[in-house]
Specification:
This protein is of the alpha/beta class. The protein contains 23 helices and 12 strands.
Length: 573
């Protein structure tokens, strides 16, 4: 919780006012039974109606002050709790946004979503309840005991003997529940992941008739979460009934002992009635405190999960390195990398690419093609070797400066619910003329014009567009800022051959100064590249131009023959 306290510190003054109002309201509540005892024992026997009305008015004033004070303080508590949680969510979202790909892989996206939503909600509840009950409960409990001690020590001792038993009960339950709440949140992460996968892959699931299978998968994780919640609930369910039982047994003992003491003339009816009221106040205060412990159990588990992200060290920081002497734009120098640090996903990759040149990368699924891009953009750091851009090791380039060099279309890129223009601009300062040029080059002008222009509204994830239309918009987004390095990661798979060919021709004409990297499954998309790399099992098994690879790389020749036919391969070779 100490990592979360820094978010509370700026609001300490405001919270202090809230607690002061709560304190006054609680004192007013404590005075009411004492005033009632005075009226019954001292004023009613005198028959003075004026004094009865006066003291009755004082009781009503105390009750009204307590009511208004609690309402006002509760509103203030909700406001400060909301503001604190807003700041935590802001920093948590910002931190998640800047986590490296390796760190995000460790937390997982479903867990990050759960921490940003459920865990921060638990913290919000904790902050609000602590201000509403965390002060009022102890004041009513301690104040009630002090006043009853002053009124009748013997009856108070009967009451006080129940409190250590309740405290022990709360301690045992809290100690057991914190690890279970942590486990519950982990299971919730799993359920978020399953739901996320089902929503994202809804069309695939229906197409493959796997709806019932996915229902079973969801039921499995849902049942696991329900079982965990029931286990936690069964433990926490002991608290309130157990506390009520103990306190009500104490109340019975107070009534019995009070009857004997009143019969002996040691105490008065007013004191007994006041004791019953104070006992009710103490009972409610104790139950409120037990609820606070329940919220603390949830809050502690959630605070640890939130702090775990907030405390995550900066990864992939800037490392000053001397600039190398090279005329190449991009250099991979004996690069080796592994995601899990068990088996290499890339091994000894070396190549260099000049300004304005085109690199084509081809290979089977899982051969390491996209990993090359992940390393080039420094989503991960290499295990060995180095990557240079204009002679600078990418580890020495600030991230914002590095990313500004790129225009990129990933395999699983996204479109959001907004206009075509805003999807391409993506909140960048790009003039309309540049936007139109990107749309034209990406071969998207025909369908944008038919849809009503760049103001056409795209639905979430581009669900109202075809696969080819989405890919052309994504290419236009990558082109819009005139990038120094343009990366197209399997971004033309949904385009027909004619559109793909025209796109490559337009890129060569309009973006000749940009260094182009194309990852493709089609030979036709890369056969005109200045250099082609053939990947297999994380290793580079071929490098050269199309004609050279036809002669020297059997895997490349086999791919070419399967796609283009033997005669055309020989002709192009």
């Amino acid at each position: 919780m100490k990592d979360i306290f820094r978010y509370i510190r700026p609001f300490l003054g405001y919270i202090s006012v809230t607690l002061a109002i709560k304190f006054v309201a609680s004192i007013m509540e404590l005075l009411i039974p004492s005033i009632l005892a005075t009226i019954i024992d001292d004023i009613v026997p005198t028959g003075d109606r004026g004094k009865i009305l006066l003291w009755g008015g004082v009781m009503a004033l105390c009750a009204l002050t307590a009511l208004l004070g609690n309402i006002f303080a509760n509103r203030m508590a909700a406001k400060s709790a909301g503001s604190i949680t807003e700041n935590i969510r802001h920093d948590l979202f910002s931190k998640i946004t800047y986590l490296s790909a390796r760190q995000l892989d460790g937390f997982t996206i479903p867990s990050a979503v759960s921490r940003l939503t459920t865990d921060t909600y638990n913290l919000n509840q904790l902050f609000a309840r602590m201000q509403r009950i965390g002060v009022r409960g102890p004041i009513l409990l301690i104040g009630g005991i002090i006043i009853t001690l002053m009124m009748d020590t013997g009856l108070t001792l009967v009451l006080v003997t129940t409190l250590p038993v309740i405290a022990l009960l709360v301690y045992l339950v809290t100690k057991k529940s914190v690890p279970l709440y942590t486990k519950q949140q982990s299971v919730l992460d799993k359920m978020v992941r399953v739901v996320q996968e089902n929503i994202t892959g809804a069309r695939v699931i229906k197409a493959l008739s796997k709806t019932e299978y996915e229902k079973g998968r969801y039921d499995s994780v849902n049942n696991e979460l329900a079982d965990t919640e029931q286990h936690v609930g069964s433990i926490m369910a002991v608290t309130n009934p157990g506390s009520s039982l103990i306190l009500n047994l104490g109340l019975t003992a107070v009534v019995a002992v009070g009857a004997f003491r009143m019969n002996a003339g040691v105490t008065t009816p007013g004191v007994i009635i006041a004791f019953l009221n104070y006992f009710t106040i103490i009972l409610n205060a104790m139950l409120g405190i037990t609820r606070i412990f329940v919220m603390c159990s949830k809050g502690e588990a959630s605070a640890k999960r939130v702090a775990e992200v907030l405390k995550a060290p900066e990864d992939l920081g800037v490392i000053p390195m001397p600039k190398a002497e090279t005329d190449s734009h991009i250099v991979f120098d004996h690069v080796t990398f592994s995601y899990e640090k068990i088996k290499n996903n890339l091994e000894d990759i070396s190549f260099s690419l000049g300004h304005g040149q085109t690199l084509g990368i081809i290979g089977a699924t899982g051969s390491g093609k996209s990993t090359i891009i992940n390393l080039l953009m420094r989503f991960y750091d290499t295990d060995s070797g180095r990557i240079l851009i204009d002679g600078e090791d990418i580890r020495s380039i600030p991230k914002e400066e590095l990313y500004r060099k790129f225009g990129v279309v990933f395999q699983n890129d996204f479109l959001f619910a907004d206009t075509i223009a805003e999807n391409i601009r993506y909140f960048r300062d790009i003039p309309d003329s540049q936007l139109e040029a990107a749309i034209k080059t990406a071969q998207a002008k025909s369908f944008t014009d038919s849809a009503g222009g760049a103001g056409y509204h795209v639905s979430a994830r581009g669900n109202n567009l075809s696969g080819g239309q989405k890919q052309r918009l994504l290419i236009a987004r990558a082109l819009a800022a005139n990038p120094e390095i343009l990366v197209l990661d399997d971004s033309s798979s949904a385009l027909d051959y004619r559109t793909d060919a025209v796109l490559r021709k337009e890129l060569a004409a309009g973006y000749s100064s940009s260094t182009l990297i194309i990852i493709a499954q089609r030979i036709s998309s890369i056969m005109g590249a200045d250099m082609i790399i053939v990947m297999e099992g994380g290793r580079m098994i071929g490098k050269g131009r199309h004609s050279e690879l036809i002669e020297s790389c059997p895997v490349y020749r086999e791919i070419a023959e399967s796609q283009m036919g033997c005669g055309e391969v020989e002709l192009n070779g």
